[in-house]
Write a structure and sequence with these properties.
42% of the residues lie in helices and 19% in strands. By secondary structure, it is α/β, with parallel strands linked by helices. Strands 1, 2, 3, 4, 5, 6, 7, 8, 9 and 10 form a ten-stranded mixed beta sheet that branches. α3 packs across α10 and α5 packs across α12. α3 links the parallel β1 and β2. The protein folds into two domains: 193 residues, 3-Layer(aba) Sandwich (D-Maltodextrin-Binding Protein, domain 2); 99 residues, D-Maltodextrin-Binding Protein, domain 2.
């Protein structure tokens, strides 16, 4: 394992151990009568976003296991900080949870001079739910046939390449900043509000490339409009088996994955957190749930509370210097 990064693939291997706990008795939380009313999961993004889709796929089966409805509430705004901060300030009564992502849970602690919440002290990890690989792609008629070819073109034509992303500080932005740092290349960042708009910018010729979630890229690949160059996982994704990793594409090993984590207010009782961890792990093992997630190019992960805690700390260690090198800030 690369000592500088906790590989996404290694997290998938750990899932089996956590899933063994899913069949155990519910424990103290069930004995105390929790839950006895609907459980709310806050999504700090709009309906249709990746964490929203993930939560809605999981919520029905999770509600069945809990014996209470699981209600999804979208609280979009401030790049995910609004809804994430709202949960951080909520009572830890076991009836409010969060599904958030890389930015609000880790990256924004570096990008913002001041956040209204601290994800490491005001939120409590529950489980790492799922991840989406980014796919680096160019327009099909660009003449670029490989990721190493893209890097060579950037070196030979400094200042002539732009890349699109889903916003300053997003993984689609910072993943390319990581690529630039590893290859000593330069390209101008052009942020867009969403993956479809980032892809449209490539198709229109406004930018030359992007590394965005596969769910946005693959339809354009199938339509013959875009060419995928590499996937951002350490190993080839079973969902896109024909796309090489960055290392296979001839570059240093680079890994960045858009992940979604379930969190709770810091004061949520341990027995409730552990119960939610067990139930979500069990749901992620269900074949129909996995099929639906795969349909969105999402890999279910799961694992223990401690796995998620360590993963977030590692993400902070790895990405802090990349963010600082990029000069990206959000005020």
């Amino acid at each position: 394992m690369n000592p500088k990064m906790l590989h996404f693939s290694s997290l998938l291997l750990k899932t089996g151990a956590a899933l063994a706990l899913a069949a155990t008795a519910a424990g103290a939380a069930a004995q105390s009568g929790w839950p006895n009313r609907p459980v709310k999961i806050v999504i700090p993004y709009a309906a249709g976003s990746s964490p929203d889709v993930f939560a809605r796929i999981v919520s029905d089966k999770l509600g069945q296991r809990l014996g209470q409805p699981v209600v999804i509430e979208n609280r979009a705004g401030a790049g995910g900080n609004l809804g994430t901060g709202m949960v951080a300030k909520s009572p830890g009564d076991g009836y409010t949870f969060l599904v958030s992502t890389n930015g609000p849970l880790v990256y924004n602690t570096v990008l913002y001079k001041k956040l209204s919440y601290d994800p490491f002290t005001e939120l409590r990890p529950v489980v790492l739910g799922g991840g989406q690989a980014n796919v680096c792609a160019v327009r099909a008629d660009s003449g670029i046939k490989s990721l190493s070819g893209l890097v060579d073109a950037m070196r030979k034509n400094p200042g002539k390449f732009n890349f699109s992303s889903t916003g300053v500080g997003s993984l689609s932005h910072l993943g390319i900043e990581l690529l630039k740092a590893k290859t000593n290349t330069f390209a101008v960042h052009i942020p867009y509000p969403s993956s479809p708009q980032a892809i449209l910018a490539i198709l229109q010729g406004d930018v030359q490339f992007a590394c965005v979630p596969a769910v946005a890229v693959i339809p354009q690949v199938k339509a013959g409009k875009m060419l995928p160059l590499a996937v951002s996982t350490a190993k080839r994704s079973a969902l896109t088996p024909d796309i090489p990793t960055m290392k296979e594409a001839g570059l240093p090993e680079i890994e960045n994955v858009a992940w979604m984590a379930v969190m709770a207010p810091a004061s949520t009782p341990t027995d409730i957190v552990q119960r939610m961890n067990r139930e979500i792990n069990a749901v992620l093992e269900m074949s129909d749930v996995r099929e639906k997630l795969h349909g969105q190019f999402m890999e279910p992960i799961g694992g223990s509370v401690e796995d998620l805690q360590k993963f977030m700390q590692q993400e902070l260690r790895v990405m802090t210097p990349i963010i600082k090198r990029s000069g990206a800030t959000i005020d």
